[in-house]
Every structure is written in C-alpha cells, then in structure tokens.
Amino acid sequence: MSENKSLKPGTESYMRDAAMVLIALVGLLFGLFYIKNSCCDVVYSDYIRLVDAYLPDVTDPGKFFVPDILTRVPAAFLMRAVNVEFFGFSVTFDRLLTLLGFALCSAVLLLYSRKKHISPAAYLFLIFLLYSLNKWEIFINGSAWSHVVSFGLFFTYYYIFDGYVVKPSKGGFAALLILPFIILMFAGEYIASYCAVMLFFAVLLIFFPRVLSGKPGLHKSSHSTAIFLCVLAAIILYLISRSFAVWEHAGSTELGFLEFVKADSLFIPRFFIKSFAQVVLGGETISSFSAYLSEQALGNLTLILGLVVIGAYLLAIFLYLRDRMYEKTVFPMILILSGGFNHVLVTAGRWIFADESYALSSRYAAQFTIGIVGIFIVFFLHMKRHEKKAGIKISLIIFIILFLSGNCYTCYQEIKKMPYREQNYERMYEAVRLHAQYTDEELCDILEWHKDPEILKHAISVLEENRLNVFRN
After folding, report:
1. N or C, where is the chain less crowded by C-beta within 10 Å?
2. What is the mean predicted confidence (pLDDT) over 131-135?
3. Domain locations in the chain?
4. What is the rounded distance in angstroms from the CA atom of residue 301 to the CA atom of residue 25?
5. What is the rounded CA–CA span in Å between residue 61 and residue 150?
6. Mean pLDDT across the chain, nearest whole number?
7. Average pLDDT over residues 167-179
8. For residue 156, what pLDDT is reported?
9. Contact (Cβ atoms closer than 8 angstroms) between residue 233 and residue 180
10. Pick from 327, 331, 373: nearest CA to 115
11. Are 459 and 52 in contact (CB under 8 A)?
C-alpha cells in the first residue's frame, strides 16, 4: 500500500471549510481584543446627543414616530430600549453590535469564498482587510453599530442577488424583495450607495439578462422589475423622510459650493483622491509621518497613494470585464462600485468642512473597505483562473504586498496606542462620575462635546438620576 494516502473524498473540503471558519473567528476575537484593551464603558461625544434626545423614556412613541424617522435609524430605537432595560445603557453593548456587523460580513465572504473555491489564504487576507485597525474609530465608537450591521446586510443582499443572477430561485427572489425594507431600518444615509448600485444591476438584469448570466430566458422580466421597484421604493422612502430632517454641521464653511470651488478649484479633487489612501494606511498613521515630512511632501505622498489605489480599482474592473467574470458572478463588481460610490458620497458630504484630513478619517474606513474587498476578490479569481500565466500576476502580487504591509503597519501603530486610548476613556469615565468637580469647558473638552454645554449637563443628569452607564453600579 502506498505511504502517500490520499485524503478520503470530502475530507479536504471539510478541512478547508474548518480553516475558513477558524479564520473568521480569529478576526472576531481580534476585534474583541481591540475593544477590550482600548476603551471603557462611558458615554461621550455623539452619545451625549442620544441621551439628551431619547433617554430616559426610550419607549416613548412620540420620539419614534417622527417625520424623519428613517434618518434616525428605526432599528436603533429597539436596540436602545434593550440596552437601557437590560444593560443600563452600555456603550460596550453597542460596540459588540458593531462586531456583529463585521461578523455578518465575514460570514457572507466565507460562503462566497467557499462557493467560488477561493483559498483559505486568500480568505484570510480578506478578513484581515475587514478587521484592519484603519477602522479603529468604528470599533470603539459604539454609536456607529447600525451602519456596520447595515454593511453586513448589504453583503447579504449582494450575495443573494449574485446567486439569483446565476440561478433564479423562489427563495432568492422573495429575499430580494423583502431585504431592501429591512435594510432601510438600519442603514440611514448609507442606503444611498446600496440603492444606487443595485438599481444599476437591476436595470441590467431587466434589459440585458444574458450579459449577466450568459443564458437567455433565465430570468422573468416581471421578477427583475419587481426587484428594481423594491430597491427604488426603499430609497424613495428614505429621501421623503430625509426631507423633514434638520441637519447641523458644526465647523462647516460658510461659502457656497461655487464660491468654494472658485476659491480653491483643486480642493475637492484632492479630497477625493486622498480618501483612497486611507484603505492602505490609516489616517492617523499617515498624519504621524508629519514628524519626518513637510506638509507639502506628506500631501503629495497621500495623493500618490490615493492614485495607486484608484489604479487598483481600474485594474480590477479591467480584469473583471476582460475575463468576462460577469457571466458567472456579479458580487465582486457590486462591492467595487459600492466602495467607489462611497468615496463620492463622502467627498460630496464632507467638503463643506474645508479640511482634507476628513478624507482620511477612520470613521469612513468601513465603507471604503467594501470596494477593496471586491477588488481583491477579482484579483484572486483572476489568479485562480490563470494559475500558469505570469502576465499581470506580478502587478496583483505588488498590490497585495502594498495593502498587506500598509495595513499591518497601521495595525501595529494602533495596537501601540491602545493603552493611551484606554487612559483617555478612563479620564472620561472619571469626568462623568465626578462631573461636579469640573467646569463646563473642561467637561466639553474631555468628553469631546463641541456644542451647548447645557445639553451635556442635562445628559449627565439623566444618566445619574436613572442610574445608567457609569452610574449604574
């Protein structure tokens, strides 16, 4: 009998699946590790507004049934009530919900990687991008949990749509009709990129179904139209609700758009390009280079890095079209277009602050990462399809090394900062507990509150009177 026994049929597949599940769990544990060691449970910044607006009567229908309800994230009302009732309004609870959103993304990527026979090593790289600490602010700012959960729901919808395009099913069709309205409960303004991209692909499915599936007569036109109409209805409902909202932008420029462009015609293009650099090196990591580089040199470096990432987008789109991947999968292209559209949305919404550093903010890293995940899925599918050809593979390996090294360095820098971030949160904790010993200016500064001090004092009084958050023990 040969000593080199082959594995039993299916054993190799089980081992591969087990390895990928383990990778997903390691990513989740890394997120838990970062949260545990970089912060503590204290209300600050945007939570002050939430306390002032919604507590202690978190089940008050008058605070829920408002004209701009969809901009306030309806799902947040339910989870806030659960948080107050069972966890004493814990920020940690919301941070764990954020991790749930990332876990949902990683689960969808696992299913897709398994279906497309993407290797565990490639899946590990995708999970590394997903949990990279260029998103440090997303991990510890619990108030963003609903948006990250919405990203997980986006991934779920994209995955179901991908399967439906290849092989229509009643279950997939029903899910594609229902999910847009579930997503509407979580996404807030982030629904814009999801709806824009899905409307585009729904139109393709209606008028050019053979291009996507490679098979004529596979999709019912009425079904494709129904999918389009449900997504359209979701964005229309959001826009109607948004029309009733009143927005405050502290620190925004007083110049109109045309006046602003006339004053600095290159600001918006620079902002847009620099936003792409954030997915390789986190914003704070890039800023730390100011100790070695002049402001102009650092700005030029960021622009070059942003252009390189834009090059990765263009290369992925080229490979996707050249290899005719659209006949077998639309999932990665949906991610790419969603990520690219998010850069457009951030630029359109944040130029008003007239500060290019906003382009590199950690709070936008999760939405930018969507596109990068799509790019590397295309790269991995191309390399798998052309295993024996060198050709463009060298360029792909260079991109992999660039993103890997940049994100590794960012993670290294952020892990070094964990004790200092925790100390800052402990200082916040003490300031809220002993608020009477601080002046209004000191409290606002420590708790990162840049609006009316009276709102801050009212929020702290609500917490203290109802024994919530830092006062619950």
Report:
1. N
2. 96
3. 16-41+90-433
4. 35
5. 24
6. 92
7. 94
8. 98
9. yes
10. 331
11. yes
For tokens 């599940």, name the residue: 21
Say yes or no to pLDDT of 279 above 60.
yes
Residue corresponding to tokens 């060298």: 394
| CA-closest candidate to residue 293, choices 281, 284, 301, 303 | 301
Report d(CA 209, CA 198) in Å as an integer: 14
CA-to-CA dists, residue 168 to 154, 215, 238, 451, angstroms? 19, 12, 28, 52
Share of the chain above pLDDT 90, in %: 77
Q: Taking a C-beta distance cutoff of 8 angstroms, is the pair 4, 105 a contact?
A: no
* In the predicted structure, residue 154 carries a pLDDT above the cut 80: yes
pLDDT at 140 over 80: yes
Over the stretch 252-268, which tens digit does the pLDDT of each residue have? 677 777 888 888 889 99
3-class SS letters over the chain:
CCCCCCCCCCHHHHHHHHHHHHHHHHHHHHHHHHHHHHCCCCCCCHHHHHHHHHCCCCCCHHHHCCCCHHHHCHHHHHHHHHHHHHHCCCHHHHHHHHHHHHHHHHHHHHHHHHHCCCCHHHHHHHHHHHHCHHHHHHHHCHHHHHHHHHHHHHHHHHHHHHHHHHCCCHHHHHHHHHHHHHHHHHHHHHHHHHHHHHHHHHHHHHHCHHHHHCCCCCCCHHHHHHHHHHHHHHHHHHHHHHCCCCCCCCCCCCCCHHHHHHHCCCHHHHHHHHHHHCCCCCHHHHHHHHHCCCHHHHHHHHHHHHHHHHHHHHHHHHHHHHCCHHHCCCHHHHHHHHHHHHHHHHHHHHHHHCCHHHHHCHHHHHHHHHHHHHHHHHHHHHHHHCCCCCCCHHHHHHHHHHHHHHHHHHHHHHHHHHHHHHHHHHHHHHHHHCHHHCCHHHHHHHCCCCCCHHHHHHHHHHHHHCCCHHHCC
Q: Tell me the residue type at 228.
A: F
pLDDT of residue 217: 67
Nearest to 273 by CA among 340, 173, 209, 184: 340
